[in-house]
Amino acid sequence: MTRLQSLLEEGITAARHGDESHSRLCFRQVLLDQASHAQQALVHFWLAQLSHDEAEKREHLETALALEPQNARIRQMLAVLDGKLKPDAMVDADAFKPPDAPQSPRAWRFVCPQCGARMQFDASGNSLACDYCGHHMPVLRALESGMNIAEQDFTVGLATAAGHTTGDASRTLKCQGCQAVLVSRQHSLTCPYCGSHHVMDVPAPTIAPPQVMILFTVVAQDARRALQAWVDSKVIGSAYQTSRVRAVYLPAWTFDIVTERPWRVMNLDSSQVPGMTPTMTTYEGSESDFQDDIVVPATHRLPFALLPAFEDFNLTALTIYDDACLANHPAALHTLTLAEASLVARRKAYQSAEKLTPSVSAGNRFSDVKIAPPKVSVLSYKLALLPFWIGNYRYKGKVYLAVINGQHGKVRGELPPGLLEKALGKVL
């Protein structure tokens, strides 16, 4: 163990045992001895816990966050200081048992009324400016017109019960045929998955309510035509039958994620003098990327082959969730928790970040290039309801599922094995 690491652990042990003076002495020495960013961040994290002054505590936490922007514990402590997170609401994810009434703190995102892009506070802080088209609007007017979309701080959400529960529904129904669980304001409905009329009331489970939704713009008649046209293009002949289409809102998590991939390049000097030792120059940096609204399906009800349908939506059309919309169409409860979905989103972001390469041009001879694995940090999330029409078609005695996008009508469906082989044969 290095001297610095030994001093750091000694300071942490002293802090845990209430020996504040000795722990501060150890931490001060660590900061003076050119500690790494991670070690400095840990020191400031513990100094914040030792501090009795809120301003000093905040200064240590913000310094630690600048050194380690992806440290969840630091962001959670800052959330406590900002009043976004109550200390008694924090849970240990490994030993968590869902409570009866989870709560989720909110952060607000504003969308432009002209183009649907994200709006940010301008330099004055008194108005909002669109990132895309430049449209300006006073903050008060934006709030009054309902342009604010709730985005949840991921670190705060995951530290509370809401991150590990599947959420609050006033009326929950269960299909006795396929066992799908739905939320609706109707007293009776047809199951959108299997078409069964045997749907009964069941006790409402503890679920996290959605924050946003996309409304249906494709009507049943157009969805039926789209399904018919899709089947016509896939199945040659008339040996098939299509069903009616049934509307349902399906849940999906969306995540805003930042990735960073550090790199280091060792460059051999190409203009070396004969007989002299070649000189090496080191270049260091990182490739960063912001990935907005990574979509993760929050239901297991659709076949795996149809899950890409969740990525077909234009998310600039998201609007604030209103359960009055469930009067016409039911919504499926999400079966994937925030914690589980975040792992899927992290993997997607990680795979995308792996494709980033160093943007450095430092000569013509590189003797050593090292690229570190990407660092992934989830900033915020939303639980959204997306509009789908679900239909079936029967072909040679078997029934296949198809989904029609309720926003613009794109169809994705299961293909019979023989037709799939033919399609692949044409491509290959």
Report on this model:
28% of the residues lie in helices and 28% in strands. It has helices at residues 3-16, 20-32, 37-50, 54-67, 72-81, 139-144, 154-159, 220-234, 338-353, 417-427, and strands at residues 107-111, 118-121, 127-130, 136-138, 148-153, 172-175, 181-183, 199-202, 212-213, 240-242, 246-268, 280-297, 319-320, 331-332, 366-371, 375-395, 398-405, 411-413. Strand 16 and strand 17 form a beta hairpin. The protein is elongated, with a radius of gyration of 27 Å. It folds into three domains: 3-68; 93-164, no CATH class; 220-427, no CATH class. The chain is α+β, with helices and mostly antiparallel strands. The strands form two sheets. Strands 1, 2, 3, 4, 5, 9, 10, 11, 12, 13, 15, 16, 17 and 18 form a 14-stranded mixed beta sheet that branches.
For this entry, what is the oligomeric state of its chains? single chain
Overall outline: elongated
- Terminus-to-terminus distance: 58 Å
Report the uncertain regions: 91-108, 158-169, 420-428
Helix fraction, binned, reads 25-40%
Strand elements, count: 18
User: How much is the average pLDDT?
Assistant: 75
How many structural domains in the coordinates?
A: 3
Q: How many distinct helices? A: 10
N to C succession of SSEs: HHHHHEEEEHEHEEEEHEEEEEHEEEEH
Alpha-beta content class: alpha+beta
Rg measurement, Å: 27 Å
The biggest beta sheet, please? 14 strands, mixed
Strand content: 25-35%
Give me the secondary-structure topology.
Layout: H1 3-16, H2 20-32, H3 37-50, H4 54-67, H5 72-81, E1 107-111, E2 118-121, E3 127-130, E4 136-138, H6 139-144, E5 148-153, H7 154-159, E6 172-175, E7 181-183, E8 199-202, E9 212-213, H8 220-234, E10 240-242, E11 246-268, E12 280-297, E13 319-320, E14 331-332, H9 338-353, E15 366-371, E16 375-395, E17 398-405, E18 411-413, H10 417-427
Parallel strand pairs: 9-16
Antiparallel strand pairs: 1-2, 1-5, 2-3, 3-4, 5-16, 6-7, 6-8, 7-14, 9-13, 10-16, 11-12, 11-15, 11-16, 16-17, 17-18
Helix pairs in contact: 1-2, 1-3, 2-3, 3-4, 4-5
